[in-house]
Amino acid sequence: MAYYRKSSDMNKTDPNKKLSISFYSKTKVICPVCKKDFQKEEMLSGGGRMIAGTLTDELRRNFEPSVKYGKVYPLIYTIGACPNCHAAFFWQDFAQLSDNKTIGKLMDEENNRRESVNTIFPHYNLKREKTLIDGAACYYLALLCYENMPKSFSPTIKKALICLRLAWLCNDLETECPNHNYDFIAQKFYRKALFFYQEALEFETTKVESIAGVSNFGPDIDKNYGYDGVIYLCGLLEYKYGQQENFDERLKKLENYKRSIARIFGLGKSSKNKPGPLLEHSRNLYDSITKLLKDANVIDEDDL
């Protein structure tokens, strides 16, 4: 089926020659949970593998398929998963985890992880070159693992980032393998991302859990949009995927995000450190929220 496309396609001019998209690092990774080692798969750079395209309003970088390599998915190589116990994390966290209580929980949850992930991403395989479905499965495994991680790992903001990327990958799966309900699953992950992004900001402001454990807020791999990007995504996800049942509550949240987003491009006009794409998308989101609020007759004309 389409979503089992190998991460290495055959050369169009020589069908017997394999073109590599990824490679296995010589240094093996030791799983902190089961203590077994495994190879780290990384994406090769250069050679026309990654052709940068447009940036979406969700700050995802689209990569154009190349004639030589076809469609590639760089996101799937940023999460590692142990093929023995199916524990998964961002690569840097493998070397950081040493807490025996957390490790015990992750060991106890191994079978549940496998079953949960296999329900959504059937027949995933952690012992081959990653396919799109394997990469999505790794992210879901990581989401379940970070549910048990201590606050020192900033698990909430990481779960937010994981859920947003899972939504993207599920939409990719729907494109490659339509009519398998991955578009429906993507909507679920968007809503989870909204919840975790908002919770991460609340935890940060109330000093419950710091987001400092994340070195790159992404949300994609090509650029770090920092703390402003987190605020922007909270507003965007609320606007696009927020609940519709309590309309008054929705409008109140959007009013608050409108003010926060205005600060992003307001301060950014005089700052060379503000990334231009974020300013542009923030302004567009501000205008969209303003129109929605105005149509709902809840905006004070003096605020416009």
Can you describe what's shown?
There is one protein chain. The strands form four sheets. A two-stranded antiparallel sheet has the order 1-4. Strands 2-3 form a two-stranded antiparallel sheet. It has a two-stranded antiparallel sheet with strand order 5-6. The longest helix is centred in the middle third of the chain and has 24 residues, at 182-205. It has helices spanning 100-108, 110-120, 132-146, 155-176, 182-205, 226-241, 247-268, 276-295, and strands spanning 22-24, 29-30, 37-38, 41-43, 51-55, 61-64, 79-81, 88-90. It is mostly helical. The protein is globular, with a radius of gyration of 21 Å. It starts with 21 loop residues before the first strand and ends in a 9-residue tail after the last helix.
